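Q: Start with the shorter request: fold the first protein.
A: Done. Sequence, then structure:
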Amino acid sequence: MSFHRYRTFIPDWEAFSRALLRPEPRTFRVRRTDAVSADELRERLEAQGFGLTPSPHLPGVFRVDREPFPLSETLEHWLGLLYIQQAATALAPPLLAPRPGEGLLDLCAAPGGKSAHLADLMGDRGLIVAVDSSEPRLRALSGNLSRLTLSSVVAVKSRGESIPTGAGFHRVLVDVPCSGEGRSRRGDLPRVASPGDLKRLPRLQEALLRKAVEVTVPGGRILYVTCTLAPEENEAVVDRVLRDGPVSLVPLAPDVPHAPGLTRFGDLHFLPELAGACRIHPHHLDSGGLFLALLEREGGPPVEEALDLPGWTPLDPSPPEVLAPWARNSPALQGRGWVERGEMVRMLGLPAWPLEEWLREMPGLPVIHTGLRAVSREKRGGPRPSVDLLRWIGADAPPGAFPSLSLSREEWLGLLSGRELRRRDAPDGAVALMLDGQVLGRGRLRKGRVLAELSPPRADWLRQVLAQSGPGPRD
């Protein structure tokens, strides 16, 4: 099989073919946070020698034209101000249009780029259950969420088609496993769906989409996504589910170059409304290929609040007493959910979740990641806020709320390399260790000596980042 079978529905075939021959540009998305604007982040990266071009179609997405050293080794990446991803994939989460306070499901989530984007779009005020069958990929997702300091995501290991059905969701993202033809520009040889792919994968894709329909509440929406061109994995799957209901297709017309969905392909005939699906081909955004179809669940009055979702149970919305008064009184921490796992109190984006119902239906279900690490109940030294919480609160913390110590880049490099660092301008005790007004870690002063409390892997990573991403352009 080859891409030539698609000539019937790709009229700009020459542009499509040329795009497949070019390496795919490296791109990233700027996080939607108060920490930095897209323009400010661009200035910071360009000052280090990066050449960047904003996407003409996707706000907050930049192409990397010059990369003097890996973008992943910048302090901006380490601080979670950006997320490296394929440009086309930044289109999907906004089309699902999540709203603060909603409960979402990401059925095939790892390594977490779309879950993180959904959380950003909700202002980290919602709850996303991210499901994946691969524990190593979920561990990578957990690391990404910690770097991004997001509280709105819970990650669970399960096959998406096998998740419990007792809990409902406002919106579901179904980014299914596929033959990956849209990622052809990333390798030396094109990815072309094989006959075996087209026999095996649509069965799994349909099972995942039907599960999404089953757990979506009336009025809720489902976004079906693949990164392949094959109609057998795209329109054909959605067509079969639409015919059985209770869902309808919501036409998509994103303000980017795209093609409509197909209503026929060879001997296959699809419902006329499939023209309202969206196809992104590699030449449209100079990126990868993508198929998107938005469905709406029918059958009753919509469910507005997360606490009214079936199978969701309330969590304590008040910051726990184990937090220091300054943290308990922070407006940013009010109205969230709080749970304890081991010696760590964790913060969620909503005071409700479906995990109790899921664990009742599937005892022993592995929960890999739970919100944001907030405070540890340590046997020595008492409860202490985590680095993630200190970074998350950031500028919202009242002045002097938690002792802090600002270090220069040279002092940080020395400290992380094992050299002794002494400071007499701060009292002994726990401190937030800063660089240029940003929390990089938690530490302690003991008899004037500065001790960094970072795990060895995280300390090694930060040392590499600080050594690599010093100020000033590079050749």
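Q: Next, the second protein, separately.
A: Sequence, then structure:
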Amino acid sequence: MMRLNKYLGETGFCSRREADQLIHDGRVTVNGRVAVMGAQVEEGDEVAVNGETVRPPTRGGRPQKVYIALNKPLGVTCTTEHSVEGNIVDFVDHPSRIFPIGRLDKNSEGLILLTSDGDIVNEILRAENKCEKEYLVVVDKPITEDFLRKMASGVRIHRTTTRPCRVHRVDKTTFRIILTEGLNRQIRLMCAAFDYHVRQLCRIRIGNVRLGHLRYGRWRNLTPGELQGLLPRFRGAQ
């Protein structure tokens, strides 16, 4: 027996958090009956979302989970909504149901992870885990030492102050920044606070997973070593 939100997460239909919302909205049924929060399912039960039966992909009787890294191009939107033109799911066109882990702005590019495993999302995004995310940023004017120092010490945005972070100059108008949080449009707003405009933003690392030589617009499966380094529950496996 398994909680319904965990079941939906393991099918790759959505994350657990999204599953909870679907259940709350009355869009999920179990054996034809509208499900309630905390519902349990067992083998043989028929689960449907908006009338569409949801079953996990299997290999050898167990769900086959997908973990991929994508070099996201500009213009691709990190949503699973097929009604949104340029959504990331249609762009990847993976045979399994997958969804992005976190976001990368439409006007940003670089590394983003996608998965069919609803459990992995909360583990990576949970604030206390402080998963590092590294970016290369190009701005519209020369970078000063004062700008670097203030960016690193924390900036007031979204009615809060960002966590201290590491910031290093790469060249006259490019800097590298390593964050352990993911506020909406964080880097752009941090720069704007000091009258800098972001011209290009590329994420090059999430935890131990690096963009490396992955070609623009292409994706690859994560390696077992990357999974072991990224998630505590994979460490020591195999």
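Q: Describe the second briefly.
A: The chain has seven helices and 19 strands. The domain at 132-206 is CATH 3.30.70.1560 (Alpha-Beta Plaits).
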